[in-house]
Each structure stands twice: as structure tokens, then as C-alpha cells.
Amino acid sequence: SVQPVQFFKSGGMTGPVTASMDTQYLWHSGTCDESTTVTFDMDIIQSSAATLGKSTSVTNIINIDGQGEIELKPCIQTCFAYTTCVQDKSTGIWSTVRRMRVLTTTMPTASTAEALFASLDAEALAVVLFHKLVCTSLQEGLQEAQTLGKRWLLSTLLCVYRSAEMEQA
User: Fold this and answer.
1) Based on C-alpha coordinates, what's the Rg of the chain?
2) Which of 13, 36, 55, 123 is exposed most, by the fewest CB atoms within 10 A?
3) Is residue 64 helix, strand or coil?
4) How sure is the predictor about 58, in pLDDT bands with cuts at 50, 70 and 90?
5) Does the structure show a pLDDT above 50 at 2?
6) Distance between CA atoms of 68 and 102, rounded to whole angstroms?
7) Distance separating alpha carbons of residues 38 and 15, to the nearest angstrom
8) Taking a C-beta distance cutoff of 8 angstroms, is the pair 72, 61 a contact?
9) CA-to-CA distance for 97 and 86, rounded, in angstroms?
10) Residues 6+ positions from 54 with CB-CB distance below 8 Å
């Protein structure tokens, strides 16, 4: 059996959510509709290349006994538990029911900074950065928020520069 390797840990969430007091990686949201923006931070805890015995890149295929080569795809899974009112069609009586919706979605990976930037939603990125900066300023002060903003900008510019450098070589 293959044991999953944890490459990331949660750095928290921003948006209209509250962390659960008793369960790790569980958040409660007071609202959830198409205009709600919720983000989560993922902190790298180990290099996947080092874990998989590679020196430079992450392996996209793994060999599983009895199943052959399986393509690894990054994914996110969310589970929404909610309460709603429904009407019984035969009696016409309304009742409260608890429902759960699970969504698992895979995401393509970008091999260059340009591909990553081309796939971004600029408005969503602006909201995420705003929430991150406001949260940091409230928790750690304006100086740390300013430093974080500079780090984001420098990191972005450096990634684009390195990616362009690699394409020219």
C-alpha cells in the first residue's frame, strides 16, 4: 500500500471562516455563495523532489503494485455540511434537513511562471492579497504587512525573470 506523503501544511484560511476548536483542518463558514472568497495558505514542509529521491523535479507518475503506473495529479477536496428546509411532497410539511456536499477537483500544474500568471484570475488574486495584507497588519503590525507585500512582489518578479531566463537558454 502507498502511504501519502505530506508536502504542505495548512497556514490558515482567510475570508468569512472560523477555525474549529476541536478538529484540525476544519473551518466553519457563515456564508457561502458565488460572491464569497475564501483562501487558504499552504506552507511547504518538505521538498517533494527530495522525498521522492529526485534532485530537481517532482515526479508525476508513481508505480503502484498491482495497478501499474498511476499519474499523480494535485487536487483539493472540500466538504460542505449545511442545513436547509425542504417540503415533503406528499404531506406538504416542511422540515429541516442536514446535507453534505463533497467536491474533489484536480488542477493542472504550471511548468513556467508565465503559464501560472496566464491562468490567474486577477480580481481573485487582488482579493487574496488584500485579505492576506489586512490579516497580517492586524495580527503582526503594519511593518510586517509592508514587508509581506514587498516579499510577494519581489518573489513574483524574480520568478518571471528566472522563467524568462530559462526559456532563452
Assistant:
1) 21
2) 55
3) strand
4) low
5) no
6) 28
7) 5
8) yes
9) 7
10) none
